[in-house]
Amino acid sequence: MEEAQRRALRRGRARLVAALRVAPLWDPLEERGLFTRPMVEELQSAGSRGGQARQLIIDLETRGKQAFPLFLSILRDTGQGDLADMLIKECECLPGPPQPVDLRPVELDLRGEKQNKRASFAVFLHATSIAAGSLRRAAVGSGPSGDPGSIPCSVKSGRREGDPCGHCLILNNVSFSRASNLSAREGSDVDCKKLEKRFKALSFNVLTRRDLKAQDMVSELQELAQQDHGALGCCVVVILSHGCQTSHIQFPGGIYGTDGKAIPIEKIVNYFNGSHCPSLRGKPKLFFIQACGGEQRDRGFVVDSDSPGDEAPGGSLESDASPFQTPSADADEPDAVASLPTPSDILVSYSTFPGFVSWREASSGSWYVETLDSVLEQYAHSEDLLNMLLRVANAVSAKGTYKQIPGCFNFLRKKFFFTCK
């Protein structure tokens, strides 16, 4: 698709979202080869009519050179010629294509750019949408080992300037009941404040809840899942608590409420799947878990460390571990395999390898959150999320005598960027 046609779709998107009748379009879109049946079904699952129209216009840009004229023809065939005329007018009144830009990688001072208070928003990109004619920027980041990397991308979003890109719920459990036999998580408030500030800077609506029992945590998660996310691009859930191993099918581990009752992480994740939260179908759902996966302490192996003071646990250094316990007969069991939809467009980032502890300091917070916040600050405007999580894992694994390494379960189908405007 030519750049002028792309810009015409973007300029006309507001009117298309407001007026486009999508129901008559599905069969012609498939018959003329613009979308396959699975693609059409995914578009139909994008929530309201307006949400379906928005996603259709966004995805149309990736469907090749003939996508624009074919779409105009389908609009006329379905009695929506006024919208086709509007797009033609938008295309004709746009200036000619810009001169090719020099896309040679350049070294950017990413640390200095954080002082520019520019709005950020999340964009969700098809891995196949990167094409030379649609490059918008080329940014270079320098990894922990000094190796540069370049990620050019085509920015596509239905979000208007100033709109939030999604909701972010932070559940922060610090003080636990005496009956739970779980210690207070000193330093967790430090983590919470860092992440509140970070996700607000990335244009999320941030809601924080502190010291919740397990059932209250479930209520907050269900309330978030039941909201209409149709106009938003993604959803983020952050949980800061004690954790444990649990039996599981998809996602390992569990999170404790302040009453000492555990919630399986896979149960938390599945509140937001396509069956329970239709308005988030096809959109990224990101979970960041700062909790232990068990009680094992890993002495690890020797790596270069920039933190020689991080020695064996002692002083203010604590873990968020709780031993693995086989669920009793009356405990809630995970849902059967047949009842769990495929967890597409989900990423769960764990602070530690399942079965091992996660370290936290009273003054500076947890190793994982401290590093995650720092990496987001430096690279959120230039790198995709998975690349940033590799940086987090590398930095955290270099700390201390007792080792910790974060990891993730990734079911995203596209690259996810926090992109500066």
UniProtKB/TrEMBL annotation:
InterPro entries: CARD (IPR001315), CARD_CASP9 (IPR042147), Caspase-like_dom_sf (IPR029030), Caspase_cys_AS (IPR033139), Caspase_his_AS (IPR016129), DEATH-like_dom_sf (IPR011029), Pept_C14 (IPR002398), Pept_C14_caspase (IPR011600). Keywords: Apoptosis, Hydrolase, Protease, Thiol protease, Zymogen. Gene3D superfamilies: 3.40.50.1460, Death Domain, Fas (1.10.533.10). Signal peptide: none annotated. Pfam families: CARD, Peptidase_C14. GO terms for biological process: apoptotic process; proteolysis; regulation of apoptotic process. Residues 1-90 form the CARD domain. GO terms for molecular function: cysteine-type endopeptidase activity. The active site is at 242, 292. Belongs to the peptidase C14A family. PANTHER family: CASPASE RECRUITMENT DOMAIN-CONTAINING PROTEIN 18, CASPASE-3. This is CASP9 protein. It comes from Psophia crepitans (common trumpeter). The gene is Casp9.
